[in-house]
From TrEMBL:
CDD domains: ABC_6TM_MRP1_2_3_6_D1_like, ABC_6TM_MRP1_2_3_6_D2_like, ABCC_MRP_domain1, ABCC_MRP_domain2. Coiled coil: none annotated. SMART domains: AAA. Belongs to the ABC transporter superfamily. ABCC family. Conjugate transporter (TC 3.A.1.208) subfamily. The chain crosses the membrane at residues 159-176, 260-279, 337-365, 776-795, 873-892, 963-980. Residues 435-659, 999-1236 form the ABC transporter domain. It holds the Pfam family ABC_tran. This is ATP binding cassette subfamily C member 13. GO terms for molecular function: ABC-type transporter activity; ATP binding; ATP hydrolysis activity. It comes from Equus caballus (Horse). Keywords: ATP-binding, Membrane, Nucleotide-binding, Repeat, Transmembrane, Transmembrane helix, Transport, Vacuole. It is found in: Vacuole membrane. It comes from the Eukaryota. It is a multi-pass membrane protein.
Amino acid sequence: MFSILRRWGASSSYQRVPGGPEAQKCSPEKSASFFSKMTYSWFSRIIILGYKKPLEREDLFELNESDSSYVICPVFEKQWRKEVLRNQERQKVKASFHKEAHTRKPSLLCALWNTFKFVLIQVALFKVLADILSFTSPLIMKQMIIFCEHRPDFGWSGYGYALALFVVVFLQTLILQQYQRFNILTSAKIKTAVIGLIYKKALFLSNVSRKKFSTGEIINLMSADAQQLMDLTANLNLLWSAPFQILVAVSLLWQELGPAVLAGVAVLVFVIPINALVATRVKKLKKSQTKNKDKQIKLLNEILHGIKILKLYAWEPSYKKKIIEIREQELEIQKSAGYLAVFSMLTLTCIPFLVSLATFGIYFLLDEGNVLTATKVFTSISLFNILRLPLFDLPTVISAVVQARISLGRLEDFLSSEELLPQNIETNYTGDHAIAFTNASFAWDKTGIPVLKDLNIKIPEGALVAVVGQVGSGKSSVLSAILGEMEKLTGVVQRKGSVAYVSQQAWIQNCILQENILFGSIMQKQFYERVLEACALLPDLEQLPNGDQTEIGERGVNISGGQKHRVSLARAVYSRADIYLLDDPLSAVDVHVGKQLFEKVIGSSGILKNKTRILVTHNLTLLPQMDLIIVMGSGRVAQMGTYQELLSKTKNLANLLQVFSEQEKAHALEQVSVINSRTILKDQILEQNDRPSLDQGKQFSMKKEKIPIGGVKFSIILKYLRAFGWLWVWLSMATYLGQNLVGIGQNLWLSAWAKEAKHVSEFTEWKQIRSNNLNIYGLLGLMQGLFVCSGAYVLTRGSLAASRTLHAQLLDNVLHLPLQFFETNPIGQIINRFTKDMFIIDMRFHYYLRTWVNCTLDVIGTVLVIVGALPLFILGVIPLVFLYFTIQRYYVASSRQIRRLAGASRSPIISHFSETLLGVSTIRAFAHEQRFIQQNKEVVNENLVCFYNNVISNRWLSVRLEFLGNLMVFFAALLAVLAGDSIDSAIVGLSISYALNITQSLNFWVRKACEIETNAVSIERVCEYENMDKEIGIVGRTGAGKSTLSNCLFRILERSGGKIIIDGIDISTIGLHDLRGKLNVIPQDPVLFSGTLQMNLDPLDKYSDSELWEVLELCHLKEFVQSLPRKLLHEISEGGENLSVGQRQLICLARALLRKTKILVLDEATASIDFETDNLVQTTIRKEFSDCTILTIAHRLHSVIDSDRVLVLDSGRIIEFETPRNLICQKGLFFAMLTEAGITQDSGTKK
């Protein structure tokens, strides 16, 4: 396998994550000596460094080349492509024999096997050797007990046995740790390969597939299902190893107890099918659980992306209730799984006892002369203890297989889903036209209603083309058709040259501004500065804290809407493409800037003058400058031609031009806001100082995820225990203490039984004692079973309580965080807390606590038993315990920080994936899929580096701890030999069998202590938000201050001085929900949630259907909704993607009309709809809100000219505030803006 990966890597160069040379610490593993590799001594420098200081990312060793995502992903993708081709051939063969062949998907399992089979075989060989050695130690112990029973004259053989026992257990340690290292890293490589394939597939999904798989579901495939495959791989060898160990153990027991062992086998045969039934039930529960997790992540994703709307409308309680409902369904399933775990725990703990009880019982019945000697008892007990591990692992691996089957099915469904067909567009076209449609019809779905019909368009190279039409007429769909984003039903589409695309909703990456513009292209300084100047970005760069090196937050939250569009346009211009598709980029900027962008970028004298430009626009005043105008109507080309041709043909177009030419030439150097006189604003509404608001914005930047350092505070564990419930905590402690005491009692009883058998002379007396002993042994087993059941039940109840409490607190804290938090923290960080961190709290943390408590009690009990048998053993234990704690102290300090780095490195994977899914159309348009695939490999590789270091640190610890445990075994054996005749063989058997167990117990004890500390970070992260300030601080934003004004009214931003008074009430004196419930807003960005149209209009279910139809009619949407098959129950896709932006804005308007509050804020509410609809909407607003205070924020001056008063802002300061008529008379800034816009005093101004 390694040679294959190296050969592949030669053709695909190994690229490291960016960073200075000092950051590239190549792993010294390859150059290490054999002994260093086996003991992981080469990793000691990281452990020592981690003890001296908190480790940082650059301190960690890089991956071996063959383990990196840059090598793994291409190899696996190659095998997956081969599997897809093989599957297609199989389907063809089946189809030739059967007319209706069952469609079979390509097997992900086959592709994984073909990729990793050699390393998986290597791992299996290590496991075979480790298993064989595990059975050697009981056989040596048997010889030692025989030696102690007979004490031959030549005593050196005893020392030989003691030394042989030490050598065997030490070799077992080395081989087992090599197995663990290769096994876990191979499972991580499989997860990496699958994540890479999921990401690549997501870039090419068709629209049908995107509807089928929401963003939340795809993220869940990457986080949860890929993890399930990793868990299966880690447990894969147990599928054959567990039966192998059971078979060997039973064979050796046959030698000790003869046919009686078949009774034990019968118990196993009886119990395993019951476990299989339990596993089947768990499979169904897991399937339901996965669906609930998908729902929760999908809803959370939408809530976090639309958090501003939730806060403005005070909808947090409603959506919190929806999340809680899904969560309760999850917890119900978790409770059922927990109760099933009670049975699993019972069988797990009691099977060795039941097997031994049945075996010993039948052993006595088969022959009344059979006697249990120390040799038989303790050899059998050691074998039963070995038997316990595969029996423990078998339910785990069955569960992993069950879950992996579900995950494999989900992944295969996704990976086999439809992709966009490249043949929809002929890109190798060499004709005279840049773009040509011939009788072309398109739909979003192959079986769906055609959205575009019978298109016949030919666009010459270098032409400037306008696409105009009403909302929903198909303007943006034309661009989607050119990009190949739609399904072609009929006809031919031809496109010549490269494409650059500016989407209607600007997509901005979470990186520096320069990288957003360069978008992977090489920096050419002169052209870059020319693009910045043409796109009117130079003034913005002067005000940004680090110029073009300023980091832009997730979704561009720290720049204004207009700036986002200009950055998006600059990105397109810089790409130097042949064809430019511009989806209404001028609607989000004021008229002055829009005019500059057209003249310097898009128009006949602009930077793109020789390029083919297709501009979707509502600005009809630009039409005279177009080479070709396409008028869309109901998905068809209603009219097409030059401006003069259409003017002569179409009376309606001429009328429209006449109306809007007077209103839309304008520019607005500053933004305009209008406020009715019924709202009183003090002069102190915004801070009156000399600094513009943008200067405050310089403090605004995206926050990196905080990585804690040092130990986890005990207060975090206490928080979990409080959520767990103190009653359940103490009951858990009591049941586990009882369980361990009874377990020790069973072994002591067997020891006393074997010892007693030697001193009984009469057969009748022996028969009576045997019967009593067997009864007491059975009673002790029954008591252990009761303790196990009680413990599992109590743990389930407590863990459910903790999960419910911590999730509810997290959700409540997140929804009460200020909007500023969401604008400065990546959504991936928050989702990671609801997914990975809550998964650890739900499923893992209580398990680690339970295991640690059990191990602690087990270790204490073991040491007490051995010291009781061999008092001198205490002299060896004291220095070994000191060494244990020293190793633990060094390890925990390093491991804790490595795990924290690994946790922090997971968030960028989710964030990058979410960002990609949001901008997938832009990525595909620019043909940058391979670059983004490479970026995904980089973020995955970062996580893999941390995981690799964590795995090696665990192996480093295990080798050292197990070596100390091996020394304990050696001391116990040596003391038994030295004791001579002063010690009974039964005591020797008891002490050595316990010593053999202590190695694993101590290893588990230290490991679980570290697991608790490192996984407590998840509790720390979940509780992190509760200590954050829920009050909203002041951070200025770019622009003149109009957004700040509306944010202050809703108390999204709190005032820093003065008062805001509405109807005589200071708004700072009332609750946020009370305030926001009385205000109404139609936002600039139309946010819709997945669900029905009815739910989007009325999420609180307060209004009747007739009221909904009424507002739809007022918003001119009634006809459109009535044409939908399910009308009000029409399913809105995630983010409202199955509606045009204009339709989304009209739905937001309808939502506002339903609320009918006394104050309405219109924040660029009609920027994305055509002028005719805008006029109708403005009329509706004035009629329906005639008795309300309306605040209008708009770039279109005709929208505000008939207002009662006009408020002009500049850099957060009030410049003018008067009636329109008085402002015109004063001939100030407002008058200048009207003059430049060509709006006269007779244009409807109010006095």
